[in-house]
Amino acid sequence: MTLSQEAVSSFPSEAMSHNLLGWSQLESGDLTTATASLDEAISLNPYLAAAHYNKGRIQETNGAIDDAKNSYKLAHELASPDDDIGRMAAEKYNVLTTTQ
Question: Tens of pLDDT along 16-39?
Answer without folding.
Answer: 999 999 999 999 999 999 999 999
